[in-house]
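Continuing from the previous page...

OK, I double-checked the sequence for Glutamine synthetase against my notes and this is the correct one:
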Amino acid sequence: MAGNLTFDQLKEAVAAGEIDTVLACAVDMQGRLIGKRFLARYFVESAYDETHGCNYLLANDIDMEPVPGYKAASWSKGYGDFVMKPDLNTIRNVPWLEKTALLLCDLKDHHTREDLAHSPRGILRRQVRRLQERGYLAYFASELEFYLFSETYDSARAKHWQNLDTASPYIGDYLIGITTKEEGVMRRLRNEMEAAGIPIENSKGEWGPGQEEINVRYAEVLEMADRHVILKNGAKEIAASEGKAISFMSKYNYGLAGNSSHIHNSLWSADGKTPLFYDKGAEWTLSKLGQQWSAGQLKYAKEFTWFLAPYINSYKRFQSGTFAPTKIMWSEDNRTAGFRLCGEGTKGIRMECRIGGADLNPYLAFAVLIAAGLAGIDEKLELQKPFVGDAYQAASLPEIPKTLRDATETLASSKMLREALGEEVVDHYVHTARWEQFEYDRRITDWELHRGFERY
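Thanks. Re-ran it with the corrected sequence; updated structure tokens here:
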């Protein structure tokens, strides 16, 4: 939970006229920043303690439509407020916006001031506390992929999202020459995120025309989730200011690579100095603890897939031969598997979960990976032997759920997640998933019109 400004520094910057706007943000179910823009002097005078928002913001869909059927908020309950409690440890300047600072808020019940059980940041906080009780610190890192377009969001909308001009006309995976042409946005993104206290290790071209990958320095898990959501929001704002557009859709085009969010995770001692996954004498140099943690993630992968792939579109990404996984298996260094061991033989040894798309909510995704890892430790699971070969062609391997419907029903019946997250939380997000499916099932797609308007 480390911004790059203290509250005292913020007050000094406001008094000096260097900051005149404070964004007090929370995170919604979709992983987006929601909140208010404060005139800075009012924030430092009073709103630093708390502000409020309508509780429908954790009971709506991606279109901001209030969704019927939630227990936490509804028309019958009047859609009241929740408390937005600023986390003053997360204050950071926002270099791409003039004289602006940003911080994140935790969401609490308006009457009891207790954490909202279904708040994404609160869900992850509870899993962090479970780690702390055992003397563990989790380091996570998420690699975000996205497409950069030589379009504005308005021009893309006018084209009905079809025949869009990507920032590069052909695949430039790792090619320096092609990504030089994209530096107008990417250089700003690296440097301005760094200046906002979000250290960017590198960016590179990915396996699609105009597709980018950006790698944020690993961090304690809650801080990493904070970095992730601010990066996504800032990337779109920076691109828009350059007359460009960015998409984090899992699969925006059937014929092109999807956008992933690979998640690297490992456990360390509470002081962050001793890697608990590294054992030079163990098989694969992965400690018994690390093997149990990884075995838990493998065992429960089907049950938590929805949290890594929360939309209809998310499941279009799981296609053979696209570097997106289709099977639940781990390997030592194999990009066809759902889980990949990285950093073998070093203190940086970690497991990479390759299931998630760039459309995931990092707080929820990180939370369920922790829950599954801890279940593996508690159950003293043994890690199976690593897979060798082309996992796409291995018919005997367990499959990642193929559809949102499959993933939803698997989540609904998960005893492990109900125990780790709570019945109320799982029911809330199962309802979210079922609403997404319901909305899709009753809509007419362009594919249906193209295929059937004349031919049926």
